[in-house]
Design brief:
The chain is of the alpha+beta class. The chain has one domain (about 20-70). It contains two helices and three strands; from the N terminus they run H-E-E-H-E. The protein has helices at about 1-20, 45-60, and strands at about 20-30, 35-45, 65-70. It has a three-stranded antiparallel beta sheet with strand order 2-1-3, with helices on one face. The longest helix is centred in the first third of the chain and has 17 residues, at about 1-20. The termini are far apart.
Length: about 70
């Protein structure tokens, strides 16, 4: 029984670290002005979210100069 509880505890601990990413809402800017189109990405940090959003906008074919994620 102790082994089962230890295994369950270890699985919960690992799953907690695996889900450390947060959902970010990112907006694109063209010429310094906000434009329509919001994307959502999952990332561990703001810089990672910005990079993922840039890639997503480019993949969708949108023109983008910069991205702001919250």
């Amino acid at each position: 029984m102790k082994k089962v509880m230890l295994l369950v505890g270890a699985m919960l601990l690992v799953s907690t670290f695996a889900q450390a990413e947060s959902k970010w809402t990112c907006y694109r800017y063209v010429g310094g002005e906000p434009t329509g189109g919001v994307v959502y990405v999952y990332a561990s940090s703001k810089s990672e979210a910005t990079q993922k959003a840039l890639e997503k906008y480019k993949k969708l074919g949108y023109r983008v100069d910069s991205v702001n994620c919250r």
